[in-house]
Amino acid sequence: MRWIVFAVLAAASFSAVAGTLDINLSNDTIEAKYDSAAGAADWTFGALYNRDEKNYAFNVGLLAAGDKGVGGSRVEGGVGGKIYTVRVADSDVAALALGGQVRWFPNNGSFAVGGYAFYAPKVVTFIDGQNFYDTGIRGEVEVIKNSFVYIGYRWTRAELDNGTSPYVDKGGFVGLQMKF
User: Fold this and answer.
1) In this predicted structure, what is the pLDDT of residue 17?
2) Are 40 and 62 a contacting pair, CB within 8 Å?
3) Measured over all CA atoms, what is the biggest interatomic distance in the chain, rounded to whole angstroms?
4) Nearest CA to 152 among 172, 124, 132, 130?
5) Where are the domains positioned within the chain?
6) Residues of the chain where predicted confidence (pLDDT) is lower than 50
């Protein structure tokens, strides 16, 4: 519960800066993300909590971001890195993951398909971890300008030193994204 308060306060502290607030829910999980432009890059802050498993993940990242028109469609994306701190299966994992995210708006319309993938191999995964990945896909609709609703599926998993590979979270979710 404390991390939710932390996430809300962190997001509120950036209220004078244009950004994006993204919140999604499933029966067992809540995830909140905040993105803010930093020149040609985006700072990202995120937190995920799975109530049933008592797993959580925090991340801070920097992504080189942009958009481009391609054949009448629009593509938004970014590549970069995120630092994760994770609690899963009574183990702690810290990781420096590299990856990216993309959103495709066919015919530059209000519907989009998006996804993300971040991976940390053994060399940059620490404490109780061997490797870590955070991936997901989603379909979204812009309901009013700069406000999106979406449905998606995520796989967030760590391989631990004890040989197990538990999921921090795996499953479907629904969410809301607001740009301001």
Assistant:
1) 62
2) no
3) 50
4) 172
5) 2-171
6) 14-15
C-alpha span between 82 and 168 (Å, rounded): 16
Rounded Cα–Cα distance for residues 104 and 144 (Å): 18
Q: 53, exposed or middle or buried, with CB in 10 Å at 0-12, 13-18, 19+?
A: middle
Q: Residue 44: which of 87, 112, 100, 88 has the closest Cα?
A: 100
How far apart are the C-alpha atoms of 180 and 173, rounded to whole Å?
23
Cβ atoms of residues 108 and 137 within 8 Å: no
Rounded to whole angstroms, the Cα distance separating 79 from 66 reads: 10
For residue 68 the two structure tokens come to 């481009």
The DSSP call for residue 109 is -
Q: How far is 119 from 122, CA to CA, in rounded Å?
A: 10
Rounded CA-CA distance 85/95 in Å is 7
Segment 143-169, tens digit of pLDDT: 999 999 999 999 999 999 999 999 999
| pTM of the predicted structure, to 2 decimals | 0.88
Give the C-alpha separation, 140 to 175, whole Å: 9
